[in-house]
Design a protein that fits this description.
Chain A: Residues 680-760 form the MrpA C-terminal/MbhE domain. Chain A has 33 helices and 2 strands. Chain A is mostly helical. The two termini of chain A are 75 Å apart. With 117 residues, chain B is mostly helical. Chain B has helices at residues 2-20, 25-46, 71-102. Classes of the chains: A mainly alpha (768), B mainly alpha (117).
């Protein structure tokens, strides 16, 4: 099974090189890959039917519980056959649809990448690889939606889809980590026996929440549904494959897969029923008013996904059976309709249903496929859709108190879906052919055969539901319910309530189809409500987020040095002040301190006056001179307190600084008063507060005893190891010699900078 | 004495920061110098100040006696003084140069890169 999953990835890597060399011949052969996979998985049916599951495991990061565990049971089998089967037809269809496209190789690479990820997703048993493949499908779908990357719309939709599904992916990760924490195993198949313990765990609610967000974003449930109509910007094969048959069902798959583990709990059922019901009704009504074929199909797909979530929410064996059947029904008719839409778009250049009429006269096989699909969609006997619809009504009718409400919602949805299906599948083909379409011709067989196959299957399975029952549906349902299912699929149940409901649906749907003519003006009226739609709200939130980020950055990263300083110092002062407020015992032991002699006091007084003078002087020269005075006072302090080296250094450096200042003084700008008094007082206050805090901090530190270890080492070894009597010098040039060397380098660089600045001639400015 | 030095340190910090908050570049440099001096004095003070016992080994001895001024902060400060001189020298020349080109030392007016001039 690993080979089956990996082959798609390898193929995706190779295909750009292969197709680059084989530009001239048809790309039909590319479909061999999904076809092989389809046959391979078909061959597994007997084994699954016998009640076995196939399991393979490859160690990857065993220490983290991340292994490539693959697991094929009934549910996985249903999905892998869907993925590889529809995949084959889409690959075939693409070879004609995008014939001669400049980036066809790239397209096939993305498509194989997607197919492999999708296979990996539905075969994964390990929760982390499940997440990995989940993310891979989001990423590959991003490339596919944005395939026409020269169009702004296309790029925007791709980004929206990636943002929503990627956002959901993060939630999936959290849900999986939570599950791993609860169960301490990483295989889904090992979790099912622990279902009761999981439901009693305090984290259960959180796991559900995160899992639901992940599934709802991927499967376009309300209120995250809006990325799907946007994703219709993708080429039609992509819409067919990703956005009707496979990827959007990943969320449904996730819910189905975890039904045995997390399901059958009031939170699980309640949430899914409510969200599913809102989605199916909301989207079905929206589908009625679209005039773009793809828009109609997008909304009806969302509605169908809503039905699936709703059915999983009902959770009864009937409902799960209905879900399994409906997955297949929907994939068959919706993929057909999408492929047909692609043909219409390809040949006529428009997807506007108000303009399309009478195409039967020029492309009959396509029309037949579309009409068969519309019949299956409508649930008219003897189609497969009829079987599916019967099961849905059967499931809702068995729901006790809520049966009538749920059934009515289901009928409402189905009526709207029927109308949408007729508009998309029948309306373009009947009636009088407009003149402008008279030259339209039938496309290549590789384009119209795939939808024909799908549509025919949709009828065939309806006539002979037994074909599927044993091989596909029973194992799928049993892997959902955990018990061997007891049912018999059949087309005709006799005249009962369910049949009556079906008749009501078909009848009222047909009436509505003739009453309601989709038109531009109607669409405008509906789009007026867009202001209140989740799309506007969610995009508004994301826009607001951007604005807030901009405001935040603008406020803090304003580019003014003094505001940065004020922010930093103000924050620091607050912190220190808070610590002081909490209480600090300041011990000032005056006895340990050295005494103040008269001349020291004078030096300090001079220093204080010089500092104040530097700050408040109005003349540059005076300020620089008093800065010198401060420096010389420093020398004296260093001298008094046994630091002759420091005194010497300070003396020479200070002299140099003052000389430098005076040398360039006449080239320096005038000493202007730039800020007003209020600002000065504010700055002064802040500086004083900070200065005071530093003083208190210094006192605090002084009351702590100091470790003298380092100093003692130097004191003892300066002469013995360094052969020098001046300990400070020995430290600098011997013990820390390399540091000093780097310091000299820094000075050298500064000197080069100074030299460069002095000698630099700014040619451009001097010319002016 | 320590108490007085602590007050001087606070004063140096306050003065340095006040000058750095001005809009004029020259004042900014003066503020930097004051702040640097304050930091040096702080380090010096925290190493415990000792009178009249420089960390120099006597002519006939092999190591320092019982009481001596801590050599480690002194080494640190010495490095700091020299490095800050490098910074000051470069900054002073840079201001001079910048003033020649843009004709202002108001930080608020020096927002443009030279292409926009």
């Amino acid at each position: 099974m690993l080979t089956a999953v990996i082959s798609g990835f390898i193929f995706a890597l190779l295909i750009p090189f292969i197709l680059g060399r084989l530009k001239s011949i048809s790309t039909l052969w590319v479909a061999l890959l999904p076809l092989t996979l389809f046959i391979y998985f078909l061959s597994k049916i007997p084994e699954i039917l016998a009640g076995n599951t196939i399991k393979t495991s490859y160690q990857w990061v065993p220490s983290l519980g991340i292994n490539l565990d693959f697991y094929l049971d009934g549910l996985s089998l249903l999905f892998v056959l869907l993925i590889s089967g529809v995949g084959t037809l889409v690959f075939v269809y693409t070879s004609a649809y995008l014939k001669g496209h400049h980036y066809l190789d790239r397209f096939y690479a993305y498509l194989s990448l997607f197919m492999a990820s999708m296979l990996g997703l539905v075969l994964s048993d390990n929760i982390y690889t499940l997440f990995l493949f989940w993310e891979l499908t989001s990423i590959s779908s991003f490339f596919l939606i944005g395939f026409n990357n020269d169009k702004e719309d296309s790029r925007k939709s791709a980004l929206t889809a990636l943002a929503i599904t990627g956002f959901g992916g993060l939630f999936l990760m959290v849900a999986m980590v939570g599950l791993g924490q609860i169960t301490e195993v990483y295989q889904i198949s090992a979790m099912a026996p622990m279902a009761e313990a999981i439901k009693d765990h305090s984290l259960y609610g959180w796991v559900l929440f995160f899992l639901f967000i992940a599934a709802f974003t991927k499967s376009a449930q309300f209120p995250f549904h809006f990325w799907l109509p946007g994703a219709m910007k993708a080429p039609t094969p992509v819409s067919t494959y990703l956005h009707s048959a496979t990827m959007v069902k990943a969320g449904v798959y996730l819910l189905a897969r975890f039904t045995p583990v997390l399901g059958n709990h009031e939170w699980w059922n309640g949430t899914l029923i409510i969200v599913g019901a809102i989605t199916m009704v909301y989207a079905a009504i929206h589908a009625l008013f679209r005039i773009d074929l793809k828009g109609i199909l997008a909304y009806s797909t969302i509605s169908a996904l809503g039905i699936l979530v709703f059915l999983i929410g009902l959770g009864s064996p009937d409902a799960l059976l209905a879900a399994c059947i409906f997955i297949l029904v929907h994939a068959l008719y919706k993929a057909t309709l999408f492929l047909v839409t692609g043909i219409i778009d390809h040949e006529t250049g428009t997807r506007d249903v108000t303009q399309l009429r009478g195409l039967n006269k020029v492309m009959l096989p396509v029309g037949i496929a579309a009409m068969l699909a519309a019949i299956s969609n409508a649930g008219i006997p003897p189609s497969f859709g009829f079987v599916g619809k019967d099961l849905i009504y059967g499931a809702t009718l068995n729901m006790g108190d809520l049966a009538w409400l749920l059934t009515c919602l289901a009928i409402l949805t189905n009526v709207a879906l029927l109308v949408a299906g007729f508009v998309a599948g029948i309306k373009p083909f009947l009636g009088k052919l407009p003149e402008k379409f008279e030259n339209v011709h039938l496309p290549a067989p590789s384009m119209y055969v795939p939808p024909l196959i799908l549509a025919t299957l949709g009828i065939l399975f309806g006539l002979f539901p037994g074909i599927l029952e044993g091989g596909l549906i029973k194992p799928a349902v049993s892997s959902l319910t955990g018990a061997s299912p007891d049912f018999h699929l059949q087309l005709w149940h006799g005249f009962n309530l369910i049949f009556l409901l079906s008749l009501i649906t078909i009848g009222s749907g047909t009436v509505l189809y003739f009453l309601l003519k989709p038109s531009e003006s109607l669409l405008k009226k509906v789009t007026a409500f867009d202001r209140f739609s989740p799309q506007t709200i969610i995009l508004g939130i994301s826009h607001g987020f951007k604005l807030a980020g901009k405001g935040w950055t603008g406020f803090f990263q304003n580019g003014y040095l003094r505001y940065y300083l004020i922010t930093i110092l103000g924050f620091l002062s607050l912190l220190l002040a808070y610590r002081l407020y909490l209480g600090v015992d300041l011990l000032i032991n005056t006895e340990l301190m050295t005494e103040v002699t008269f001349y020291e006091a004078v030096v300090l007084l001079v220093m204080a006056v010089a500092i104040l003078f530097t700050v408040f002087s109005k003349s540059r020269l005076a300020a620089v001179a008093s800065l010198g005075v401060v420096g010389y006072s420093f020398c004296l302090i260093f001298l008094f307190y046994s630091a002759p080296d420091l005194a010497m250094t300070q003396f020479s450096i200070d002299t140099l600084t003052v000389i430098l200042f005076v040398l360039v003084l006449y080239n320096l700008p005038k000493y202007l008063k730039l800020s007003d008094n209020r600002v000065r007082i504010r700055d002064g206050l802040l500086s004083l507060i900070f200065g005071a805090l530093i003083s208190i901090l210094a006192l605090e530190v002084m009351s702590e005893s100091l470790s003298k270890e380092t100093s003692e080492y130097y004191a003892e070894n300066a002469y013995i190891l360094g052969k020098g009597k001046n300990v400070v010098n020995v430290i600098l040039v011997d013990f820390r010699g390399f540091d000093t060397m780097v310091e000299i380098t820094v000075l050298a660089i500064a000197a080069i900078g100074v030299f460069g600045l002095l000698k630099l001639h700014l040619r451009s400015t001097e010319k002016e | 004495m320590e108490l007085l030095l602590v007050i001087i340190i606070g004063l140096l910090y306050a003065a340095g920061i006040y000058m750095m908050l001005r809009r004029s570049l020259v004042k900014l440099i003066i503020g930097l110098i004051l702040l640097g001096n304050g930091a040096n004095l702080l380090i010096f003070l925290l190493g415990k100040i000792v009178k009249g016992e420089p960390p120099i080994i006597g002519p006939s001895e092999k190591m320092l006696g019982e009481i001596y001024a801590d050599p480690v902060p002194q080494a640190l400060i010495l490095t700091a003084i020299v490095i800050s001189f490098g910074l000051q020298a470069f900054a002073i020349i840079l201001i001079k140069r910048a003033y020649k080109v843009v004709k202002t030392d108001d930080l608020d007016e020096m927002y443009a890169t030279d292409e926009d001039l």
